[in-house]
Design goal:
alpha/beta; Rossmann fold; 7-stranded parallel β-sheet; 3-stranded antiparallel β-sheet; 16 strands
């Protein structure tokens, strides 16, 4: 149970997952302090209107030592949710923001003797890379990234490294980690730092590996993340959603309120200490299915476009098994339809609904991130 005597710091507290976590902490009776740099690309208007006036906000950067010193004063627990995420090649920024800030947090807790009782760290499904697959001959396989030359031919499915058979996707638990993007590597580095330093210095620590989190407050202004946002904005502007590869890739989606509940659950239950947990949806959904669900929630009849484009670094199928956290008592309460419906309703209530999807796509093409497969069979398919 929460207590008015407990003060919690939430880094990234003005953001998507952070603000919902702050709201739930307030409901549970905690005092809440947020640390957020209010990045202009995400928060062009400064402190967002959705942020409760009861949250004390420090506007600064988690890479700064003096910022942490001020933010940790009088704090009992920390949610370290602040992170840098992008599809552009900002490789060093991922490590500086995501991993270095985590090291700095523990460095100061230890060196300055801050009496922090627990840290809950935001990690990501991206630490699994391509995830888990099954080969008819060789059983469970954890393949590396798909070669760009293969993708350029419009051949999307991972192949068994031993027999070259097409692999079948399988939900994955927390046991095998294999990140292959700078973002995924940075999140796993943060996990290793947090869990190892936490164990060494007896600071209870939990790492939460979120799947694709969707729902209200997913910034309308960040053009590089949030498939529900991208599809919704295109549809409301009279454009068809654009689906990469063939649209048959599987993802699992989880409501931001279920993620906030998982965060607070991890804080309040010692059974979670010094462990990692998947926080995901109840099933895998193809991107085509998801695009059609968004169109239906928008009240539009529009078929997704499948031009045969792919993003370098994307995974084919990633579906998390969240049974480990569920067995401890966390419950997922929102269906896919509720996830999409809640977000579309929130967008409809906003004063402005920008659509930078074309501009963002062009920027990714210029950086070599978004490419077109050469195979004509990969273009224009509507599965």
């Amino acid at each position: 149970m929460g207590s008015a005597m407990k003060r919690v710091l939430v880094t990234g507290g003005a953001g998507f997952i952070g603000s919902h976590t702050c709201d739930l902490l307030l409901e549970r009776g905690y005092e809440v302090r947020a640390l957020d740099c209010l990045q202009a690309r995400v928060h062009p208007g400064g402190r967002p209107a959705w942020m409760s006036a009861d949250v004390e906000l420090i506007v600064d950067d988690v890479r700064h030592r003096e910022t942490w010193m001020r933010a940790l004063e009088g704090v009992d627990s920390v949610f370290h949710l602040a992170a840098y995420q992008d599809y552009m090649p900002d490789f060093s920024t991922f490590l500086r923001v995501n991993a270095e800030s985590t090291a700095l947090l523990y460095e100061l807790i230890v060196s300055e003797k801050f009496p922090v009782e627990k840290v809950v760290l935001a990690s990501s499904q991206s630490v699994y890379g391509e995830g888990k697959y099954l080969c008819e001959k060789h059983g469970a396989v954890y393949p590396g990234p798909r070669p760009v030359k293969q993708l350029a031919r419009g051949e999307w499915d991972p192949l068994c490294p031993k027999c070259a058979r097409i692999l079948k996707p399988s939900p994955f638990d927390e046991s095998v980690v294999n990140p292959h993007t700078a973002y995924g590597i940075s999140k796993y580095a943060a996990e290793l730092l947090a869990l190892q330093l936490g164990q060494r210095y007896l600071i209870p620590t939990v790492a939460m590996r979120y799947s694709i989190v969707q729902g209200p407050r997913n910034s309308l202004h960040n053009a590089y993340s949030g498939v529900c946002r991208i599809f919704t904005q295109r549809i409301l502007h009279g454009r068809a959603p654009v689906v990469f590869e063939d649209g048959k890739q599987l993802r699992d989606y989880v409501h931001v309120k279920d993620v906030a509940a998982a965060n607070v659950f991890a804080l309040e239950h010692a059974t979670c200490d010094y462990a990692t947990f998947n926080v995901g949806g109840d099933r895998g959904v193809t991107v085509l299915e998801f695009a059609r669900a968004v169109a239906a929630a928008c009240g539009r009849t529009v078929e997704p476009q499948v031009p045969g484009e792919f993003r370098v670094g994307d995974t084919r199928h990633t579906v998390s098994d969240s049974g480990r956290l569920e067995r401890l008592g966390w419950q997922r309460r929102h269906s896919l339809e509720q996830i999409v419906g809640d977000y579309v309703a929130w967008v409809a209530a906003q004063d402005e609904v920008p659509d930078r999807s074309e501009e963002a796509a062009e920027e990714m093409k210029q950086q070599g991130v978004l490419r077109l497969a050469a195979s004509s069979a990969a273009r224009g398919e509507h599965a």
